[in-house]
Amino acid sequence: MNYFPDEVLEHIFDFVTSQRDRNSVSQVCKPWYKIESSSRQKVFVGNCYAISPERVIERFPGLKSITLKGKPHFADFNLVPPDWGGFVYPWIEAFARNNLGLEELKLKRMIISDECLELISRSFANFKSLVLVSCEGFSTDGLAAIASNCSFLRELDLQENDVEDHRGHWLSCFPDTCTSLVSLNFACLKGDVNLAALERLVARSPNLRSLRLNHAVPLDILQKILMRAPHLVDLGVGSYVHDPDSETYNKLVTALQKCKSVRSLSGFLEAAPQCLSAFHLICPNLTSLNLSYAPGIHGTELRKLIRHCRKLQRLWILDCIGDEGLEVVASTCKDLQEIRVFPSDPFVGNAAVTEVGLVALSSGCPKLHSILYFCQQMTNAALITVAKNRPNFTRFRLCILDPTKPDAVTNQPLDEGFGAIVHSCKGLRRLSMSGRLTDKVFLYIGMYAEQLEMISIAFAGDTDKGMQYLLNGCKKLRKLEIRDCPFGNAALLMDVGKYETMRSLWMSSCNVTLGGCKSLAKKMPMLNVEIINETDQMDISADDRQKAEKMFLYRTLAGRRKDAPEFVWTL
Amino acid sequence: MEFDRDLNLEATELRLGLPGTVTEQSEKQKPNSNATKSNKRSLPDMNGESEVRRENSSASSNDKKSHGQETAPPIKTQVVGWPPIRSYRKNSLQAKKLEAEAAGLFVKVSMDGAPYLRKIDLKVYKGYPELLEVLEEMFKFKVGEYSEREGYNGSEHVPTYEDKDGDWMLVGDVPWEMFINSCKRLRIMKESEARGLGCAV
């Protein structure tokens, strides 16, 4: 390889696309490091505080596409106060200042302001793709800036963001010359949109393949849009409370018949049965279906729909489908790879699915490898059966709505069940557990879960040993998040070097003390050990024996962050 | 019917369990009661809060006869961040719930032999007795005595409803809250047709 000119090496490296592989390539030798770094276009930063934007720009001057993640995962569940951090502005400002030719930006759990969106739209002439997942801090005014100024915009994808909606004028901001849209997703916007502008936009976007509308787009407009965009591959519809009149229904059916390419369907905040039945037409070709925002769809309607979906690979659904419905899924969807069953009534806690549905899926779907399952109850016997049926799980997340519920039949902890899962599923990379669990389950995980990268634990374990088994055993662990478990300083400080091999550790409502955290921070200067202090009584010089209610630590090359709010202490 | 329990007759209530047996409810409220000595952190006090919530909701519904509260699993105290679903999803489900609650729950009521159907708002009634009274008035019939074993005995008409799964069920078997959430429409059947429904399986 020493005899190859740089351009040849660069060309070869072009075929290496995954970040992990490119990281490996760059570690072979100095010349390879140089060439790889200067030619890398796509960069992934799993923790925006792990490195400074300047350093990223310095190493990857050819950067065109960046993914940034901000807040810790548990921020999704209201465990992190707002304003904790995750601001993207410094990154954009640095990119703009250094004249980077940024084309793609993907953010997850970050705060992005309208000013920042405006800066993006003005600074990067070739900007093509904006994907925001679970972000906040912006309004439709920011979207208007993107629409107005990004002449070559291909993708605007807003997933589950909290957007301040100033009504629909942003859609009209796409100039008539903008014909490059491939993907538009505004399903999370709560307000009305300018329907005429939407129709015109679709009409002049011949490359549009993915369109996800919000609830404000009525059925008759949907039908018109579908007629103009028959090549859609991914469709997200709105909310249809009432059954349509027969004229609209017939037009809808005609439009859907033309949509032979639709492979992915979502939306349906509400769907009256007759309206839903029109969509049966596109079910036979669907590979992805997301009905998880539709609590109003009855079990019978769901089952009818699913029976038409023989090619489904990915299904996101609510538990009102019931165990019976999951049995229909198991017998119909033989290509199913991923399923998520969400609770339809999280406030009351009456899930309609049990271990029966899970076992049915594991036995009926041979390709199933990723599951998120919210249920009423579980048993060890069921988990053992699932483990036997489905050793190919890579992601296994089980959430029993009563978090410390034992085996529903034997009243035993669920240690044996989860133990069977980690023992059998040798490729398991992500695990979430719930139910009554003792230290034993962690012993099993430490022993068997060799590929485990991310694990979420809540209300589990008895002593420090639990966490110690975990840290000792899981060599590939990257993200560990723990809440409400009796793990204390002994576990935290057992192997401090381990945390440098991981992206982050979250511990809340455990037994670690301020003193323990301080001690850790002192030993490990390459970690940021942050305490989130939400009560007034505690202060930094307080008694070290006080419990640290929320601790988040992560490895970093950037030192302590300068944007931490008052209630976050970096030790 | 089940609404009697809310009148706090527990102390003198006859049950099948041995004296001192933990009821299903207290078991649910004390998930750690089985744990032997352990360093385990206990869940936030679920007893106190769920009691308070039940009292509050009873007060607001103005009627101790809302038997849905007592026999349905107790309303869980909200442990922060549990169940672990994204706020976006939680908010959207809650919005749907509130929407549904505000909208009222109008269902069609038909009676065999009547020339046209009626519609009633189930949200307006607090329990089965009230509902049956209104139906009796509306359609001019009398419904018999309800018993779990035999359904409505001694009447020409039987109140039934279609549930979410499309099955026809006898009115009165399930707690009120569960009933109004699953009832799609009502039908007053003639005794002769309803013979199958009232019998215990």
UniProtKB/TrEMBL annotation, chain A:
Q: What is its main location?
A: nucleus
Task: Kindly list the places in or outside the cell where this protein is found, as annotated in its UniProt entry.
Answer: Nucleus
What are the record's GO terms for cellular component?
A: nucleus; SCF ubiquitin ligase complex
Query: What sequence ranges are listed for the domain F-box?
Result: 4-43
Question: Which ranges does the record mark as transmembrane?
Answer: none
Record Pfam families = F-box_5, LRR_6, Transp_inhibit
Q: Is Nucleus found in the keyword set?
A: yes
Matching entries from InterPro entries are given as: COI1_F-box, F-box_dom, Leu-rich_rpt, Leu-rich_rpt_Cys-con_subtyp, LRR_dom_sf, Transp_inhibit
Give the Gene Ontology MF terms in alphabetical order: auxin binding
Q: Which UniProt keywords apply?
A: Auxin signaling pathway, Developmental protein, Nucleus, Ubl conjugation pathway
The pathway is: Protein modification; protein ubiquitination
State the source organism's domain of life.
Eukaryota
What GO biological process terms does the UniProt entry carry, in alphabetical order? auxin-activated signaling pathway; pollen maturation; SCF-dependent proteasomal ubiquitin-dependent protein catabolic process
Spell out the SUPFAM superfamilies in the cross-references: RNI-like
Q: Which PANTHER family match?
A: F-BOX/TPR REPEAT PROTEIN POF3, PROTEIN AUXIN SIGNALING F-BOX 3
Listed name of the protein: F-BOX/TPR REPEAT PROTEIN POF3
From TrEMBL, chain B:
Return the Basic and acidic residues bias intervals.
50-68
> Where is each PB1 domain found?
104-191
**Gene Ontology biological process terms, A to Z:** auxin-activated signaling pathway; regulation of DNA-templated transcription
Q: Report the locations given in the UniProt record.
A: Nucleus
* SUPFAM superfamilies referenced in this protein's UniProt entry, alphabetically: CAD & PB1 domains
Q: From the record, what ranges are coiled-coil? A: none
| InterPro entries cross-referenced by the UniProt entry | AUX/IAA_dom (IPR033389), AUX_IAA (IPR003311), PB1-like (IPR053793)
Which keywords does UniProt give here?
Answer: Auxin signaling pathway, Nucleus, Repressor, Transcription, Transcription regulation
Kindly list the GO CC terms recorded for this protein: nucleus
This protein's major location comes to nucleus
- Does the entry feature the keyword Repressor, yes or no? yes
- Using the UniProt annotation, give all residue ranges assigned to the region (Disordered): 1-81
Q: Which family does it belong to?
A: Belongs to the Aux/IAA family.
Task performed by this protein: Aux/IAA proteins are short-lived transcriptional factors that function as repressors of early auxin response genes at low auxin concentrations. Repression is thought to result from the interaction with auxin response factors (ARFs), proteins that bind to the auxin-responsive promoter element (AuxRE). Formation of heterodimers with ARF proteins may alter their ability to modulate early auxin response genes expression.
Could you give the subunit structure recorded for this chain?
Homodimers and heterodimers.
Name it: Auxin-responsive protein
